[in-house]
Amino acid sequence: MANFKSLIKDTAIYGLSSIVGRFLNYLLVPLYTHKLAAASGGYGTITNIYAYVAVVLVLLIFGMETTFFRFANKEGHDSRQVFGTSLAFVSIVSALFLAVVLGALTPISQALGYAEHPEFIAFMAITVALDAFQAVPFSYLRFQRRAIKFAALKLAFIALNITLNIIAFTCFTPYEGNAFLINLICTSLITFAFIGEVRQARWKFDGALLKQMLAYSWPMMILGLAGILNQTADKIIFPFIYHAADAKEQLGIYGAVVKIAMIMAMITQAFRYAYEPIVFGKGTGKDNNEYYAKAMRYFVIFTLLAFLCVVAYIDILKYLVGADYREGLKVVPIVMAAEIMMGVYFNLSFWYKLTDRTIWGAVLSTIGCAVLIGVNVAFVPTHSYVACAWAGCAGYGTAMVLSYFLGQHYYPIAYPLKAIGGYVVAAAALYAAITMVEMPNVWLNIAYRTALLVVFVGIIYRVEHLSSAMAKLPVVGKFFKKA
């Protein structure tokens, strides 16, 4: 029970930094989409380059975030030496990457379609190298349960990034290249905040330890690479397979509206930050399996609630993007459904992490990625970014289903499938009620949809028997005691 309370507390802190941070970061979406017209392709460029950055970041980190937790919690290992080994490896790989990119900047920029703006590639290469370096100290903070500093640094970066972007895009001529330069400045400043953590590392080289860690981490890197490709492959390959003249415009529209659907990514990320250290600390066992099953149940409940909230209030959320980007709002529910599947897949993934069968993670994610890319290649040329959204569902859904059945074979957990299925059916019915009924004006629409959300919350309250738990809360608890 103490561990479950710890999960809730840490999720709240990580969730605050993730959700509040992402929400503040959304200020950049209306800023960019109002200052950069869709037809200019400026936001399409931002979407495309950041997709490349996400992929490169996974390669540079090489699975060391999860590997650090695994080895730092193993008996007989010094967590500070594991930290030092992880940090040294990532630093060397990042430095080599940066040397290659800056040394061959012109041909790389030409190959990516940015021959006229090689500075875009240079800015983001330096930024991603620094981001990779920061990933290990951020993991060390999570290992030490120093959620406050973790959250403070994440929010400090976002606050500075937003402030500089607002100044650049409102006081000067709007230019997409400013977004990349500002990111580099902010990332560089945050790096200095880890001086204390770097000093705690043991830098004594241990070849045997590094060999063990790499054996564990390379499948995690493949897993992470396939996972990030599931999120970014469509944005990378879109300009190469959609040959219409407005390819950058269409990509910009898709990239903008996908931001609205990222509430699911926020919840999954916050859950992961708190859940991963606890899982590796608990290990295996019957009681722990019940804990994992319960965590899955509540993850699905809250992501379905978030899904319904976004759909219900889309008439408000649409103002996050400029008017000429709003035609893409039709794909928001599809992208959110894909993100839910991705979150479930993440929760299922602990069977191969805890049993050291990480190769299965690489296999499953690669299969899912292949499905996603295949759907994109087959349908994007004729259906544009709508095919990208459905491809995400196909890829994540495939990986999720395969992971469940393999997990039940290697590491059985009695997930409450009946209860989860019931919530999915209820959410689907309410989604239909939200989208199929249109009130005469926006305020009646919002009132009607809010009432439907209350129905879903009521279902959760009754099914999960929350009255006793709510009665223990300060102040509001007295109302539940009376009830």
Which key terms come to mind for this protein?
single chain; 483 residues; mainly alpha; 82% helix; 0% strand
Strand content: under 5%
Structural class: mainly alpha
* Overall 3D form: globular
Note the total helix count.
Answer: 23
What is the strand tally? 0
CA-based gyration radius: 23 Å
Q: Percent range for helical residues? A: over 70%
* Regions with little confidence, pLDDT below 50 for 5+ residues: 469-477
Order of helices and strands: HHHHHHHHHHHHHHHHHHHHHHH
What is the CA–CA distance across the termini?
Answer: 26 Å
What average pLDDT do the residues reach? 85
Largest sheet: none
Summary of the model, kept short:
By secondary structure, the chain is mainly α. It has helices at residues 2-25, 28-35, 42-61, 64-72, 79-103, 105-112, 118-143, 147-171, 177-191, 195-200, 207-241, 247-261, 263-282, 286-312, 314-317, 332-348, 350-354, 358-383, 385-410, 417-436, 442-463, 467-471, 477-482.
